[in-house]
Amino acid sequence: RILGLVADADVRGQFRILAAILQGPLWREFWDHLGLRVYSFRDLGLERNAPDALVWRVCQERQFVLVTGNRNKRGRDSLEATLLRENDATKLPVLTLANFRHISKSKTYAAHVAEKLLQYLLDIDTLRGTGRLYLP
Length: 136
Known about the structure:
Oligomer: single chain
Order of helices and strands: EHHEHEHEHHE
Distance between the termini: 23 Å
């Protein structure tokens, strides 16, 4: 069972929009059913510029789903490199906002992303080991 969600430093504003949609009247019942909390880097004892590998490991240890922007494989501690090296069938996926800048520009797009996020969260245990999943 997952215990919460963590928005990576690069998508905090966009994630707030998605969380507001999920906690709104349309999806509130599903959100409440999941019983999740949203955590910040500060809540986890992480600096805003913490290395991707550390953020991912802390999220895995605490059973938090990490929501991030589209990242690449730059360096040994990059998120992509960490997933390639350390992911296995027990690990929670990283949910990556494919076009995170568009979330704050289009309510329709934001609603679509929020709905897909909720679908992933409802099926999260069947998605373990997938590494990275994109929203939408």
